[in-house]
């Protein structure tokens, strides 16, 4: 034993909507980027000159099946992150998000995904907080409620 910790790889966008696998990419003792939106993860990656360009430009994928892309089931991350910021950080309703020019049906879908994914987040490792409101012990939402 050398005192190392296994780090989980999930980011805020994926954790929010449950786009992660229990006992898979959610395994670890600490989720270092768990409060970092996916769009910000890409911005951070671009700051490292040693980061291969192919990693940055490759379309995000859960890689659970051939040719799978995140955008097969999620909106583009800039849109998703805008919805999540409004809903989670600014406590906006779907109507208020729609007033900002976002699609109401999409916002409803994303809010539902966030609510359904609470059971996964309860099993996630510790998330380092960088924003107004991180997932973890400070955010407790019922896991068994009618959605």
What does this protein structure show overall?
By secondary structure, the chain is an all-alpha fold. The chain has one domain (12-127): HUPs (Rossmann fold, 3-Layer(aba) Sandwich), CATH 3.40.50. It is built from seven helices and two strands, in the order H-E-H-H-H-H-H-H-E. Strands 1-2 form a two-stranded parallel sheet. The radius of gyration is 16 Å and the shape is globular. It starts with 11 loop residues before the first helix and ends in a 20-residue tail after the last strand. The model has no long low-confidence stretch (mean pLDDT 89).
- Could you tell me the CATH topology label: Rossmann fold
Looking across the biggest beta sheet, what order are the strands in?
1-2
CATH architecture: 3-Layer(aba) Sandwich
The chain-level mean pLDDT equals 89
What is the rounded Rg? 16 Å
Distance between the terminal alpha carbons, to the nearest Å?
45 Å
Give the topology.
Elements: H1 12-17, E1 30-31, H2 38-46, H3 53-57, H4 77-89, H5 94-99, H6 104-116, H7 118-121, E2 126-127
Parallel strand pairs: 1-2
Quick summary of this structure?
The chain has about 150 residues and is mostly helical.
Properties at a glance:
two-stranded parallel ribbon, Rossmann fold, mainly alpha, 147 residues
């Amino acid at each position: 034993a050398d005192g190392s910790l296994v780090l989980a790889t999930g980011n805020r966008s994926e954790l929010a909507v449950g786009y992660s696998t229990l006992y898979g990419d959610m395994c670890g003792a600490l989720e270092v980027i768990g409060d970092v939106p996916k769009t910000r993860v890409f911005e951070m990656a671009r700051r490292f000159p040693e980061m291969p360009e192919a990693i940055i430009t490759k379309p995000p994928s859960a890689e659970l099946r051939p040719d799978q892309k995140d955008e097969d089931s999620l909106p583009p991350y800039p849109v998703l992150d805008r919805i999540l910021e409004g809903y989670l950080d600014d406590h906006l309703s779907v109507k208020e998000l729609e007033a900002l020019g976002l699609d109401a049906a999409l916002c409803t879908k994303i809010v539902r995904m966030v609510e359904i994914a609470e059971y996964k987040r309860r099993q996630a490792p510790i998330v380092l907080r960088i924003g107004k409101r991180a997932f973890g012990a400070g955010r407790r939402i019922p896991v068994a409620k009618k959605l």
